[in-house]
Every structure is written in structure tokens, then in C-alpha cells.
Amino acid sequence: MSTPLASSTNGGPPNGLRIQFSEVEKRYGMRLALRGVSLTIDAGECVALVGHNGSGKTTLLKIAAQLTHPSRGKIAFYAGESPIPAENVKVRVGMVGHHTLLYEELTAEENLIFFAKLFGLENPAEKSRQALQPVGLAGRAGDLVRTFSRGMRQRLSIARALLASPGLLLLDEAGTGLDPEGQHWLGAAIQRLRDTGCTILMSTHGRNETQGAVTRAIRLEGGKITHDSGAGGNPREVLVMAAVRDGGEGSEA
Ligand code: ADP
Predict the structure, then answer these.
(1) Quick check: CB of 71 below 6 Å from ligand 1?
(2) What is the DSSP string of 6-45?
(3) What is the pLDDT of residues 214-240, one digit of tens each?
(4) pLDDT for 3-43, tens place per residue?
(5) Which of 43, 125, 153, 214 is least enclosed, having the fewest CB within 10 Å?
(6) Is 30 in the pocket of ligand 1 (CB under 6 A)?
(7) Ligand 1 within 6 A of 204 CB?
(8) Helix axes 150-162 and 180-195, enclosed angle (nearest 10)
(9) What is the position in ligand 1's atom list of the atom closest to the CA of 53?
């Protein structure tokens, strides 16, 4: 199989990354965004991060993506039992953030080719064409991104995050702004990716379709973990609590 959504599946052991945060603290000036977060997420887990605005979810995701560094503490990545050297981590991690960071005046395919080259991938044109297929944009490959709807941009930024077949996918409220059909598509895409063994860490708000694949839920309050359903536990209680306390589209899971 060669499409990014399926490339890591072969029935073998999961090839997702394990990520370990140790006493991670993040300070922005006088403000502490994260207060000593210690957390291990195993390969193949699909973890939902919930909590009020400002509780530290985006900061934790940015640290996992190595877009920012902890003020104290450390973060480590493993493939199986082997630690991954810091310089090799970025190409194995895909991130979909609040901003899609696409080039408006390039076509969908040109955007992906640009990023494939940036990631140092072989056959960037072929990989880009293949990446458009599973996100449903193959028919719009030659259209400028400025003509795309919000949902189509979101799909394209997910295709970009999956270009290098990541072992860890980070999603920061990736469902926000998507219509029900887009939410449904995203939920199915996350489920398929989880089935390939990719580790997924995503912030989410209220109840939505992206939560169907979740195997574990963690709640942050004021930069600290207050609830963790744990690996192999039932995430629903933490998700229901989030829907009730933080608002969202429903109050039950
Ligand atoms: P969440 O994603 O849960 O809404 P964030 O991680 O974005 O939370 O923010 C956590 C805290 O860190 C907030 O108090 C926020 O104001 C602060 N913060 C986040 N990014 C910055 C920044 N670049 N500069 C200063 N403060 C920041």
C-alpha cells in the first residue's frame, strides 16, 4: 500500500512512536503554561487532550512537535525501545495546528510538493499526488488553495501532516470549523490512521466525531494533568466531563 493513510499498516507490530514527557514546565514570561507534566504515551495510543481554554493543551502539542522547547524538564521519543535522536524526530511527527499554513497562491499539489521537498522526501511529486487521494482532494489537485473552503484547507493540511507517514500525529482542535460531513471524514481518517499503529495526540473540545477512535483521555487544568483515564482505561468519563464543564456539542459520549 502506498497511500499515507495506509502506508504503515502491514499487520505487524505498531510502528508508532512512544513519547515521554518528564516534569515538563513551560513558562511564558511570568506565566506558567505547563507545571511539571509527566506523561508517557505508548505507540499506537490515540489520546484526547481536554481542558478549558488556556489550560495548556496547545503548548503541550507544540512541545511534542518540537515547535517550542520546555523551560524545564524534558521530552523523549522512542521507536520500540530505541530512543530517537532529536534531529530525526521532526520528520516522523506530523502536526495539524490552528493555522493551516498553506500557500494561497499555490495549487493543492504544489503545496504538498513544496513540503515534501522541505521534508527531504524522495519522489515528492508522486508522494504528493498519492497524498491527495485519501483526503478526497485528488480531483482538485490543480486548483489554487485560495479557492478552497475551510474544510478543504483542513483536509489539505492533514494530507501535508501525513506526507512523511508520521509515527506520531498531533492535532490541535483539527475538527474546529468543519461541517458535519468534514467532522465525519476526520473521525474516519483518525480511526484508519490509528489502525495503522500511528500514535495520535489531539486536543478536542466538547463531543465530536473525532473522539470515536480515542483510547485514552487526559484533562489539563492550569497546566497540570488532573485526570488521566490511562492506557487501557475507559476514556469516556473524562470526555463526558469535558463536554459538561467546557461546553461543546453534547453532554454525553
Ligand atoms: P489551550 O490550548 O489549552 O487553550 P495554551 O497552551 O494555548 O492553552 O495556553 C496556556 C497558557 O499559556 C495560557 O495562559 C496562554 O495565555 C499562555 N500562552 C500560550 N502561548 C503563549 C505565548 N506565545 N506567549 C505568552 N503566553 C502564552
Answers:
(1) no
(2) TTT-SSSS--PPEEEEEEEEEEETTEEEEEEEEEEE-TT-
(3) 999 999 999 999 999 999 899 998 998
(4) 444 343 344 444 899 999 999 999 999 999 999 999 999 99
(5) 125
(6) no
(7) no
(8) 10
(9) 4
* Residue owning the nearest CA to atom 12 of ligand 1: 33
Grid coordinates representing 65 are: 512537535
Pocket test for ligand 1, best of 55, 59, 68, 204 (most atoms within 8 A of CB): 59
Residue 160: count other Cβ atoms within 10 Å of its Cβ.
27
Taking residue 104's Cβ as centre, other Cβ atoms within 10 Å add up to: 12
Q: What is the pLDDT of residues 242-252, one digit of tens each?
A: 777 776 543 33
197/199 Cα distance (integer angstroms): 6
Minimum CA distance residue for ligand 1 atom 5: 56
Q: Which pLDDT value is given to residue 9?
A: 39
Interatomic CA distance for residues 186 and 155, integer angstroms: 8
Return the percent helix, strand and coil in the chain, to nearest 5.
Answer: 35, 25, 40
CA of 60 from ligand 1 middle (Å) equals 10
- Record the cell numbers describing residue 218, joined without a space: 487526559
Let me know if 30 is exposed, middle or buried by CB neighbors in 10 A (0-12, 13-18, 19+). Answer: exposed
Q: How far apart are CA 167 and CA 106, in angstroms?
A: 28
Atom of ligand 1 nearest to the CA of 49: 3
